[in-house]
Specification:
Blueprint (H helix, E strand, L loop, with lengths): L9 H4 L3 E6 L11 E6 L4 H13 L5 E2 L6 E4 L2 E6 L8 E3 L2 E5 L4 H10 L2 E2 L11 H6 L3 E2 L2 E2 L4 E7 L5 E4 L6 E2 L2 E2 L6 E8 L1 E2 L2 H18 L5 E2 L12 H7 L6 E2 L2 E3 L7 E3 L5 H19 L8 E4 L11
Parallel strand pairs: 2-5, 3-5, 4-21
Antiparallel strand pairs: 1-2, 6-7, 7-15, 8-16, 9-10, 11-12, 11-15, 13-14, 17-20, 18-19, 19-20
């Protein structure tokens, strides 16, 4: 029945998991219902068991990273996978490797500590490394595909693959990964630099973000993609939408492309605010804004493509 958690096979229940976890604690936005099943493998082998078991039982699942680029609009009854693979990086020459569950900002700091330049732009982007790879995160004219030299992942069939990126696999704020792929680790090829200069650049980037973005309010980052040749935030601002508020959900007065949660925004408030912003921009500018964030809605229990 829709809205009710499906009984899970015993093989899954042997893996580390929690029940009934509010998405307010799992996302930076703090909006959403309950995560009925949260699985947190601590090894790649456990993650592989999870994927293969779900496949064998025709069980849809979802993959959660740091929850920083995610808007959850309701309860989620499918099993949710969130990796807990440790917090160690490995350096080989100019290459730095980290598990997908490693914090994105923490990885930029780790590179700086090693005197490796090339991830300064990442120092203000929250979330996990796995999520950053999936969406090809970027800032200040840089993006992950520019430094990514190798990555490991599980296919929807549970096969472990390690490969180098190929042309066309990554694009602006997106990649070839489906919702059922699980990124396990990634390796960046960087350049030797001076730690002090690298940190100075990181401070500069973070300072710029701090003056233009609502860092004191819970948010999911930029909500909409920049349309070709245009800037979503400017379109929203020109439509007179800054400060538009529904309950505790608001279009940030600081940056039009940030929708913030003042503390107790509901799923309904946030969904309606997103819809009103898109409708108004369409009316004023004739532009259809596309979400940059991933949006999770409650969906019926079906063994489709784990892509509800």
């Amino acid at each position: 029945m829709k809205g009710m958690p499906r009984p899970l096979p015993d093989e899954l229940l042997q893996l580390p998991h929690r029940r009934e976890v509010p998405f307010a604690r799992l996302t930076t936005l703090g909006v959403g219902g309950l995560c009925h099943w949260l699985f947190e493998p601590t090894t790649e082998a456990e993650a592989q068991v999870f994927v293969r078991t779900c496949l064998r039982h025709d069980l849809p699942y979802r993959v959660l990273g740091g929850g920083s680029n995610l808007v959850v609009l309701g309860d989620v009854t499918e099993p949710v996978l969130r990796l807990r693979l440790g917090a160690k990086t490995e350096r080989r020459g100019l290459e730095l490797t980290a598990p997908a569950s490693y914090g994105h900002i923490a990885l930029a700091e780790a590179a700086a500590a090693e005197g490796l330049s090339g991830l300064e732009w990442a120092s203000g982007i929250p979330g996990s490394l796995g999520g950053a790879i999936r969406m090809n995160a970027g800032a200040y004219g840089c993006e992950w595909v520019q430094v990514l030299t190798r990555y490991r992942f599980l296919t929807p069939e549970g096969e472990l693959v390690e490969k180098v990126p190929e042309p066309g696999e990554f694009h602006y704020r997106g990649s070839w990964f489906t919702a059922a792929h699980v990124v396990l680790s990634a390796t960046a090829r960087l350049v030797q630099g001076d730690s002090e200069s690298i940190r100075a650049q990181m401070v500069d980037y973070r300072g710029r973000r701090g003056t233009s973005q609502p860092r004191s309010k819970r948010n999911a980052g930029c909500i909409f993609k920049n349309p070709p040749g245009q800037i979503a935030g400017q379109l929203i601002d020109a439509a007179g939408l800054k400060g538009l508020r529904l309950g505790d959900a608001e279009v940030s007065p600081e940056h039009g492309n940030f929708l913030v949660n003042h503390g107790h925004a509901t799923v309904e408030e946030f969904a309606e605010l997103m819809a009103q912003v898109r409708e108004r921009v369409r009316e004023i500018h004739g532009v259809e804004l596309e979400p940059e964030v991933e949006i999770w809605r409650e969906c019926c229990d079906r063994p489709a493509k784990r892509n509800c």
